[in-house]
Amino acid sequence: MPLKKKVLIVDDEPALTSLLRANLEATGRYHVLEENISRFALASACAFGPDVILLDVAMPEMDGGDIASQLKNEARTRDVPIVFITALLASEETPLGGVMSGGRRFLSKPVSVAEVIECIESITGEKST
Amino acid sequence: MPDLAAKPVATSDGELAALFQLSLEMLCIASTDGFFKRLNPAFQNTLGYSQQELMARPLVDFVHPDDQESTLRELHKLAEGQPTIRFDNRYRCADGSYRWLSWTAVPDSHGQRIYAAASDVTSRRHFEDALRESQRRYRQLLEAITTYRYSVEVRDGRTQFTWHSEGSLVATGYAPADFEADPYLWFNMIHADDRELVRRELRRVLANQDVPPIEHRIRHKNGQVRWVQDTIVLNRDERGRLIRYDGLVQDITERKRVEKRFRRLLESAPDAMVVVDGAGRIAMVSVRTEKLFGYSRQELLGRDVRCLLPERLRAGQGQDCFSSSAPSTGIAMHDCRDLYCLRKNGDEFPAQIFVSPTEGDDGVLLYAAIRDISEHREAQARVAQRTGQLAQLNAELSGALAALQATNEQLVNTQLQLVQAAKTETVGRLAAGIAHEVKNPLAIASLAVEYLSSRINSDCQTVEAITELQQAIKRADVAVQGLMRFARPGKPNLKPGDLKAPVETALLMLKRELALAHVTVTREYDPSIPSMRIDASSIEQVFINIFMNAIDAMPHGGKVTVRIRVARPPVPETDCDLLRGGSFRPHDTLVIAEVEDTGVGIPPEKLPQIFEPFFTTKPVGKGTGLGLTVCRSIVKLHGGTIAIANCAAGGVRVTIVLKGMETYASQEESPDRGR
Questions:
Q1: Distance from CA of B495 to the nearest CA of A (A)
Q2: Are B448 and A93 within 8 A, CB to CB?
Q3: d(CA B341, CA B308)
Q4: Cys staple from A110: which of B175, B367, B446, B546, with CB 3.0 to 4.6 Å?
Q5: Of residues B416 and B356, which shows the higher confidence score?
């Protein structure tokens, strides 16, 4: 059985993170860590060592962009792919798994579990190949 | 004495002949050709000729030569049947003397004979002549004592002897004896300022030169200063040497006073005044005339007035202007306009000349007022120029005003657009905020549904409930996406497709709402709808909005007709209005979607605002006022148009025009073209 992929979800909505976690873990393929406080995102990432980070954009204290910068500046997290999950973009603006400007990926809320999985798989697949 | 009046006395030729012979009055019968035919003895007694002598010659031969013409005229009148009431003439008597006869005569009815009676009025005439002579002598006498005459005997250019008339007393206050007593009196009484003038003129006289009348002042014996005119006539001997000169001294004080008053009047005139005599010579000028023309008074006096006109005008217009035949009313001004005058230096200037001829003692005088109208002309030109400039400025002003109005209109429009834009921007920001806030709970709901669906068994009802929940989430997401699109209308994701699909999807999504509102749907689809490039989810949203509006407009149920038709070029005129604002090309095939409801319609006054953000005709809480705004944004992004109108039969018709992919241009490019 292959190793579960580690997914860090950073979002200030605990309900969203817990449901996404439940849905992803239900597949048996992912090990998920939730982080609802933005300023602890980097620490969580360093401690958890995720294969992929699902990062909300609009959050109190620090927004997704700031967190992404921190992650890129930290050697331990520099190479971890980030997927932004945002309510600020309409779905048609975020083609599934589409690479947006700066090599970043975006998913638009509300997002289906299938879309998230497809996105995670495409990234980690690229990485593994 | 017998009473002659009581009974008529019978007359006979004999009696008449006796009376004719006896009358002391001269009675005669003459022929109209001027001969005496019968005379009574009184003729012979008065004139001394025999009857035969008088009848032998034409009667006018006996008339004084000075009276012959008037006598013949009188005869002629009688021959024409007019009687002579009284006519006097002189007849020559046999002794050569003349006697005055006064005649009364009547012609006969045939105009052949004249019956005349004459009285000798010689003594009366003499008396009258004597009276006239007496009056003449009286006047002469009067003149002799008021007109001062003097004579100066001259020999070899030197004064020898002087004689003064009695008139000197009236004119100077000095008697002739005074002049004899004081040989220098005549010179001393001359006003000090005029002595040089008189001396100069007298030197010329003594040099045997004729001089014009000298006007100068004298001091009268009573102390008054008086003006006199001394007219000097030179007497020369047979060799032409001056032997005597006679002077006539007239008091012209009154004339001078009048002249002075006239001069003052002349000088006070605002125009250059010129007085012209009957011969057309300048008799008087005002100072203004000297200044205007540059001549001195002396240069002008006596000259032909036409010297003031340019050569070319002297014959025609100028001549007419200064002609004394101009109306002599003395009041009406003879106006010679558009003349030019000539200065001494040769400059011409435009002038207006008013001429008033007046008959005076010295004949007709012309009073001319000459006005330099250069400044007037210049002012006129300036006024004309200024008027032109003003007209131009006015035109420019009108233009500027029109431009200003246009700019103002533009500004108002821009302002409206700005207000609209500001409103839209606010709405946009609001929409983005709402979208973000709604999308998170939607994401949670969506994930929760997915979680639940993975955990339930295949209970039909539960599955149905979950499916409906999923659809509701999707619909909410679409609505939020619409809001976001409005906030940030992005480029639509155009893909080849069919308009029917999004319409049907929208109807499917609203199936429940349509059923609850008892609204039935009728579809009229053209079977040949061409493929088109559309963003299906956006178009879905458009139709969801339109259908929702239709449902809201029919709370008690009704009918929705969805029609999709195709308009191929040339586009029918009835559809042309629908194309305004769209980015269509002449050869585009148009796909026209029409949604008609049977609802309450839209108040006509509200139709123009129907697409504005936050404008709604729905009750509070029923609509956001964003639906149609978003619809229009989406349709515009497709290059199409959307219009809303009330149907004639009631309800509303929404018309959406979009471009089909097939175009007439592509047909033109086919190989069949040009056959």
A1: 13
A2: no
A3: 6
A4: B446
A5: B356
Helix, strand, coil abundance in chain A, percent, nearest 5: 45, 20, 35
CB B154 within 8 A of CB B232: no
Pick B147-251's CATH classification: 3.90.209.20, 3.30.70.20, 3.30.450.20, 3.10.129.10. 3.30.450.20
> Please, what's the b/e burial string for A103-123 (b: 16 or more CB within 10 A of its CB; e: otherwise)?
ebbbbbbbbbbebbbebbebb
**At residue A37, what are phi and psi to the nearest 5 degrees?**
-115, 115
Interface size, chain A vs chain B, as Cβ–Cβ contacts under 8 Å? 65
- Enumerate the CATH 3.30.565.10 domain ranges in chain B, comma separated: 491-668
What mean pLDDT is reported for chain B?
82
Report the CATH superfamily, name and number, of domain B265-372.
PAS domain (3.30.450.20)
The secondary structure of residue B189, as a DSSP letter, is T
Contacts of A22 in chain B (CB under 8 A): 451
**pLDDT range class, residue B3, cuts 50, 70, 90:** very low
Distance from CA of A87 to the nearest CA of B (A): 5
Domain that holds residue A45: 5-128
List all residues 6 or more positions away from B362 whose beta carbon is below 8 Å from its beta carbon: B277, B278
Q: What is the rounded distance in angstroms from the CA atom of residue B574 to the CA atom of residue B142?
A: 121
CA torsion A99→A104→A109→A112, rounded to 10°?
60
Mutate to test the interface with A, among B442, B447, B451 (most CBs of A within 10 A): B447
Q: d(Cα B613, Cα B474) in Å, to the nearest integer?
A: 24
Its ipTM equals 0.73
| Binary contact (B440, A109; C-beta < 8 A) | yes
The conformation of residue B610, written as its DSSP 8-state character, comes to T
Q: Chain B closest CA to A55's CA: distance in Å?
A: 13
Smallest CA–CA distance from B455 into chain A, residue: A26
Cβ B587 vs Cβ B668: under 8 Å: yes
Place of tokens 């029918």: B572
DSSP result, B477-508: HHHHHHHHHHHS------EEE-THHHHHHHHH
Q: Find, among B553, B560, B631, the residue nearest to B594 by Cα.
A: B560
Q: By the 8 A CB rule, do B564 and B499 touch? A: yes
- Chain B: residue whose CA lies nearest to A15: B444
Specify whether the CB–CB gap between A38 and A12 falls below 8 A.
yes
- Tens of pLDDT, residue by residue over B597-656, are 999 888 888 887 777 655 556 554 445 556 787 788 888 888 899 999 998 888 999 999
Write down the residue that tokens 């009154």 correspond to: B254
Q: Rounded CA gap, B552 and B625, in Å?
A: 13
Out of B440, B450, B535, the one facing A13 most closely (by C-beta) is: B440
Q: CA dihedral in degrees (A51, A57, A59, A64; nearest 10)?
A: 60
Please state the pTM of the whole predicted model.
0.33
Could you give the 3-state DSSP secondary structure of residue B613?
coil
Q: What is the CATH number of domain B388-488?
A: 1.10.287
* Number of domains chain A contains: 1
For B242, the token pair is 């001056």
| B475 CA: distance to closest CA in chain A (Å) | 12
Strand order in the sheet with A82-86: A30-35, A5-10, A52-56, A82-86, A105-108
| Minimum CA–CA partner of A22 in chain B | B451
Cβ of A92 within 8 Å of Cβ of B537? The answer is: yes
**What's the rounded Cα separation, in Å, for the pair B653 and B659?**
20
State the DSSP code for B626.
Answer: -
Residues of B in contact with A15 (CB under 8 A): 444
Domain B14-121: CATH superfamily is PAS domain (3.30.450.20)
CA distance B590 to chain A (A): 26
